[in-house]
Amino acid sequence: MDTPSPPRSVPPGAEAHASRAAAAWRDRLGLLLESTGEGVYGIDTEGLCTFINRAGARLLGYEPHEVLGRNMHDLAHHTHTDGRAYPVDECPIYNAFRAGVPCRIDSEVLWRRDGQPFAAEYSSYPILDGTRVLGAVVTFVDITERRDQQTALQQAHDALEARVAERTQALSLALGQLRDLQAHIEHVREQERTRIAREIHDELGSLLVGLKMDVSWLEKRVREQPALLCKCQDMRGLIDRAVGNVGRLITDLRPSILDHQGLWATLEWQLQDFIEASELACDWAIDIAPGLKAPEGPLATAVFRIFQELLSNVARHAHATQVQVRISATASDLTLRVKDNGRGAPPSAFERPDAWGVMGMRERAGHFGGWLHIDSQPGGGTQVILSMPLYQAGVHSRLPQERTA
Predict the structure, then answer these.
(1) For a 10 Å CB count at each end of the chain, is N or C smaller?
(2) DSSP 8-state assignment for residue 380
(3) What CA–CA distance (Å, rounded) separates 334 from 307?
């Protein structure tokens, strides 16, 4: 027979020491649980409460001993916020020990003893012994005040958004009215220019022609008097200069070619006039879709004035030696591109509040649904692109062919 091994000797007092150590740890754990302001409780695999700290019991309206051994789902988590029953199978707390899945939820409520719910944030973590789940530890806190603050913040945000939307709508309406007013002013200005040009042509032009005829009549009668003849010739020279100045004034006010020959011819005429006046090397081309009728009325005037301003800016500010101009039109849109090799400018220069010329061109284009893009850098020249919608498909007219100089 085998001789049984003698029992292992236990040092005197070891069991008492271990018992005291375990009690000390339990006391420390209890102090830790009681020191936190959050509710903490444990449940076994049946969902029954195994421990709860004083803060947690107080949040639920109980004393700790009244909660121990009770089903926590039935006690405090039995109903949704809207009053629907909360099946235990759907409870995330129970999933912590059934499936070993931790969770953190802040969109539900817990129920107090008096039947009143409170917004709660809770976390549930499984208690494991190796791979075996023994239960779960749940921490929870009342977030009613935080939820109220979030609600108040959201309401304030919504109110602010509503005010911003209201102000934005009012500003958009005011901007639209301002653009309509600007367009009306430009229309009235063009009408006034046309009227003044017509009156200058009819009244002053007629007077100058009459004076020239009278001087010619005098010249025929003073041929034998050299001094008077010379004076008459000087007077005729002055009248010729006045006629030329009047013609330039009329053209500047309202070029008659725009009314009589249309926009395409006017753009070409303006470009040729610019080339002669500036003496810049100019590479230009006009490409108009076959059968496309030139726009008329305010749109034609707006395109012409913008083109006039673009060429004027090149002459006055660019300090360029070369300029490239491309004009193209299809049934849907018209595009003007003016590019120079001048000194250029930083992009901010075209966004300044006092950049009236650029602002005016953009407003003219914007009123008709068009846009103006400026690409410029110091020392790198400037390119300006104007795009204007036309929507004139199916309209036919005689058009100039593409020309390149």
Answers:
(1) N
(2) S
(3) 12
